[in-house]
Amino acid sequence: MADLLPIYLIILAFLCTVGAIALALFHIYKHLLNYTEPIYQRYIVRIVFMVPVYALMSFLALVLPKSSIYFNSIREVYEAWVIYNFLSLCLAWVGGPGSVVISLTGRSLKPSWHLMTCCFPPLPLDGRFIRRCKQGCLQFVILKPILVAVTLVLYAKGKYKDGNFSPDQSYLYLTIIYTISYTVALYALVLFYVACKDLLQPFNPVPKFVIIKSVVFLTYWQGVLVFLFAKSGFIRDEEEAALFQNFIICVEMLIAAAAHFYAFPYKEYAEANVGGARSFSGSLAHALMLNDFYHDTVHQFAPTYHDYVLYNHNDGGEEGTRKYRARTFVPTGQEMDAVRKNKHMFGNKIDGVSVSSQSSETSTPKTSGDPARPESMKSSLLVDASDSVSTMYDMSLIDIDISSYPSKVPSANISGGPK
């Protein structure tokens, strides 16, 4: 089947694959050498690595078409991984889920026809909203490997063939499930972006969103359309359609590798020295660790979700002053409504957490113009549900050296007054 494509197209695909892999690995190498913001660059390295995975798997599927289903399966699992890391990167930029909830407290997403919310009441931007966005992406990350395993089993039993829309084959039904899952994940990303657009503005999010959507979602729809062309007779058959799809992806990955340099530049992290010095191997090991995905997945689907955990930026294990994780209770649903109604009783404190009128430069944009109007309210799709001035919590962690504190603390006198 490999002879269905002219040899010059295969050579072109090879050159594009080699160029894309070389460019992406160089990009990753520069990030690991300048690994000064580990909490951000961990996700960036994982995202950029999609180019070598996509390019290599597509080229192998092109030259070894009989084994293409296995190469395509690896590529499809990794694209789900990219979606998770991109949303995690966006949340890290704005200070984490807890910081987003506090920043958007009292605001709602207005009904909008292009967001398909025109028939619903305003959507409160609380902890439940952030949770639904993450769950929308995580369902794709979890479902994708399961469907890939099902596909391989059905393929071994002769019940699956790429591009075969016959009701007797499973391709039609798996495509429907994939489409629903893709759509939910994309919709969750769009809602999160619209709600946090102003908070994300300092990080130039538009090209990043465009690249991720183009590589992950458009390549999927591109493959569906190519097989539909084969079904309609514009392409000879499903085998040629599959080869054509893999060839296009090899070429597109060279473009994507160059676009990643612009969207995720390493130079903005060079010489920043924010995260301290790390060896290349230490940076690589940090980027490859999957503990964040495990804990995040458990956290998102646990019943105690609203007990947010704010991780320190050194990820533990660092030498020097001992650091502790801080917990804050982020109310959701009816709890959030109760807090809003009783805001005047708490002043600048809610649940014992002090409110800071200034937010970190790296997490939220600076306000301009009316000081009483937060920047996140500039979006035409956001409305403020309260008349009070919203302020930010200072969500940064405090390094505590407990060596100077006594080992035993005297008990408090709660009898009602001094004796």
UniProtKB/TrEMBL annotation:
One of its GO terms (cellular component) is membrane. Residues 354-368 have a biased composition (Low complexity). Residues 350-383 are annotated as: Disordered. It is found in: Membrane. It holds the Pfam family Solute_trans_a. Coiled coil: none annotated. It is a multi-pass membrane protein. Keywords: Membrane, Transmembrane, Transmembrane helix. The chain crosses the membrane at residues 6-29, 43-63, 83-106, 137-156, 176-196, 208-230, 242-264. PANTHER family: ORGANIC SOLUTE TRANSPORTER-RELATED. This is Organic solute transporter subunit alpha/Transmembrane protein 184.
